[in-house]
Specification:
Keywords: DNA-binding, Elongation factor, Protein biosynthesis, Transcription, Transcription regulation. This protein is of the alpha/beta class and 171 residues long. It has two domains: 71 residues, Orthogonal Bundle (Helix Hairpins); 71 residues, Transcription elongation factor, GreA/GreB, C-terminal domain (Chitinase A, domain 3). It is elongated.
């Protein structure tokens, strides 16, 4: 595993095994399921005659362009990403893939998992490794204070929990 360096340098292109699987599943679905269905719908719409005023045909062609664009993006992106599929040696520090619990000055706690930019989802607690908070947390230990600039000004949080989960079997 390549550990995420601290601040500075190019932004990492890391992804968890689960994130990579989700992108590969999406690519497979678009290519093997959705694209053939839309292609068939376009064929059927084209058979109806005048394509210039055929809404189903025009919409289908637009959908195909969007699917093809996403397929190209996913194919290229998956080649660029590095899957982080093992735990760091020092699990007392925050690295990519860690679940980190932080506590603010009011005693409110939030738990985030530091993940790749392609898989962040704040509803799940997944925080992009490229976010200011995640970058500030890298390399920190329990009880370390982290200050981060927010739109409302500087905010300080304390690291109150760090945990890692063993990666699921990786393809």
């Amino acid at each position: 595993m390549t550990q995420v360096p601290g601040n500075g340098g190019p932004r990492p292109r890391y992804i968890t095994p689960e994130g990579e699987r989700a992108l590969r599943d999406e690519l497979q679905y678009l290519w093997k399921v959705k694209r053939p269905k839309v292609t068939q719908a376009v064929r059927e719409a084209a058979a109806l005659g005048d394509r210039s005023e055929n809404a189903e045909y025009i919409y289908g062609k637009k959908q195909l362009r969007e699917i093809d664009r996403r397929v190209r993006f996913l194919s290229k992106r998956l080649e660029e990403l590095t899957v982080v599929d093992r735990l760091p040696d020092d699990r007392d520090k925050v690295f990519f893939g860690a679940w980190v619990t932080v506590e603010d000055e009011d005693g409110d706690e939030q738990t985030y998992r530091l993940v790749g930019a392609d898989e962040f989802d704040l509803n799940k607690g997944y925080l992009s490794i490229n976010s200011p908070l995640a970058r500030a947390l890298i390399g920190k230990r329990l009880d370390d204070e982290v200050s981060v600039r927010t739109p409302e000004g500087w905010k300080s949080v304390f690291v109150v929990g760090i945990r890692y989960q063993a990666p699921a079997d990786h393809k």
